[in-house]
Write a structure and sequence with these properties.
Number of domains: 1
Distance between the termini: 24 Å
Radius of gyration: 13 Å
Number of helices: 2
Shape: elongated
Number of strands: 0
Strand content: under 5%
Helix content: 55-70%
Oligomer: single chain
Amino acid sequence: MSTPTPSVFEERLDAALQAMQNCQKEKAVKSCSLCEFYIGCETRRAYVQAVYDSMSKGETGGFEF
């Protein structure tokens, strides 16, 4: 099983960030924590996962900083 190139992780992160920012604009909030749907929000969960994947480059375990 091959690991996607780092650029794939960055693309996913950019897309998730854009989706989260669009959602914040639609709901007129500056932070997800101010949103009534904060707990259980799929958009936020996808963003957090994209950040994790970008940092770990798809590997389980530690991060490369």
